[in-house]
Amino acid sequence: MNKIYKIKTLKKYISALCTLCILTGICGCGASPVTVSSAGMVKTGSLNVETDPGYTNESPRQTVTDSFVSDDGSCRIDKYDFYYDVSLDYLNASPAEVGAAYAETILKAVPDYEELFEPYLYENIRGLFDGRELNYEALEDRIMTLEASIRDEYRSEIEAFARTIGKGSEGYLEDGKISYIEAVTMQMIPDALRPTACSALTVGGSITETGERISLRNLEWNLGSTSQMTRIHSVTHMLKGDKTITSISILGLLDMITAVNDDGVMIGILDVGTVNEMPFVYDGKKCYTYEIRYALERFDNAYDAAVFLNGECGDFTWCHNLLVADAADAFCCEDPTSEAVEAGRAVPVIRTCDSPLMEGLIWDTPDALCIVNTYATAGNQDGFTGNPGETIRFAKYNKWVKETGIFSVADMKAIMAREIVDQYEVANVHNSGTVHTVIVDHATGDIHVAFTAGRCADDIPEYILVGNYGD
């Protein structure tokens, strides 16, 4: 099937699905369509950055300050000022050997790694229990059940990593060391414990100076009580067969948070809850961050990756959005769990730039796709009404994209430098919870990243060039 036909077919499918949702609603026949409302919205403020950021289309590279290699050569870690650059070679080693080599090399490169990551892991665990007594038996059951669902090659890599870094220790114990079960748990934080907030913007060639797509993904997550995650940013290159994946993440993590493969398929995860909450189900479920890894290894275009991941979403643990983009196309996979679908709260949708939006939600620029932490397709679950933060962020993106008109890489960088970083006084797009901002330029293949250093993100983030997805 040729690409043009695929896209036309997808658009027909989305149009038909959205029409059906509008007619029936998500709560059954006869229900009214959802309407986004900003009633009760708090004042957003205007804490704008007054300084011209002075961005160009180029970003500087940093210089390697130290290098570490595993005994078998399958893992290399180069240390830079802002991040660690990791190369994992699956061509000459098994996944288990790579997992073990990665753990071994991390302990060489960052001797206090366990003291940094273990407290952060427990901060996430305590967030899961939300003030209740920690039930490690229940947590371990959740983790081991989910781990069993992961594809064999990834699971063997995780287990070898955990054995190596655990050095024989078992169980959950806050002691400044990482045990086997703690190491397995850290590999599934988004799937088992949950992330926080994010946003994404991708603009097509009709509104870029080069005529090629530019995609941005802003990750907001817990940086740690002492901002320890800012000390172990990583860019990991996974060399496997004829595919290379570049993952922008935290040192030691093997799942996918923000990543792009050597065909230019970029995927980023964005959390979405369910209105009025729903019980968490993990029996019979899969880890979506590892299915993303599989999709990046398997597919050479965003369309096929989006269709695959959206088709699998009922088996995942959380409702979420996915940015899925390449040079030609951009999609948002609106991925609800099967429980949310069965309850009539949401439906799986692949949203495009042409998809009809919820009534009251305004987007003025064709060939540009904005994603925040709620679904936006007409007829799907409405996470905007009663949630002014999401409405404000979407509205701000709409205003800024319209004002920019034709984008360069410098213009995309500037989107993240419009407001003073202060998420407590205004609903910021770029706020103090930002972990990293990734910009992929499909005209060149260059990957520009602004890593947060210290307590919180800078008002005017500094971008560096961390590689080219085509290399």
Descriptive notes:
The chain has 471 residues and is of the alpha+beta class. It has helices at residues 3-24, 95-109, 113-129, 136-149, 152-166, 180-186, 189-193, 288-298, 302-312, 338-342, 388-404, 409-415; strands at residues 66-69, 75-79, 84-89, 198-203, 214-220, 233-240, 243-250, 258-261, 266-271, 320-325, 330-335, 349-351, 368-371, 434-441, 446-451, 464-468. The chain folds into two domains: 3-56 and 194-234 and 254-468, Penicillin V Acylase, Chain A, CATH 3.60.60.10; 67-187, Penicillin Amidohydrolase, domain 1 (Orthogonal Bundle). The protein has a ten-stranded mixed sheet with strand order 1-2-3-6-7-8-9-10-11-12. A six-stranded antiparallel sheet has the order 13-4-5-14-15-16, covered by helices on one side. Strand 6 and strand 7 (243-250) form a beta hairpin. Helix 2 (95-109) runs parallel beside helix 5 and helix 5 packs across helix 6. The model is unreliable at 1-34 and 38-45 (pLDDT under 50).
* Oligomeric assembly: single chain
Strand content: 15-25%
* Major sheet details: 10 strands, mixed
> In the CATH hierarchy, what is the architecture of the largest domain at level 2?
4-Layer Sandwich
The CATH topology of the largest domain turns out to be Penicillin V Acylase, Chain A
* General form: globular
What is the helix/strand order? HEEEHHHHHHEEEEEEHHEEHEEHHEEE
Query: How many alpha or pi helices?
Result: 12
Q: Order of strands in the sheet with the most strands? A: 1-2-3-6-7-8-9-10-11-12
Spatial extent as radius of gyration: 21 Å
CATH superfamily of the largest domain: Penicillin V Acylase, Chain A
What structural class is derived from the secondary structure elements? alpha+beta
Distance between the termini: 29 Å
CATH class of the largest domain: Alpha Beta
Give the mean pLDDT. 90
The domain tally reads 2
Poorly predicted regions: 1-34, 38-45
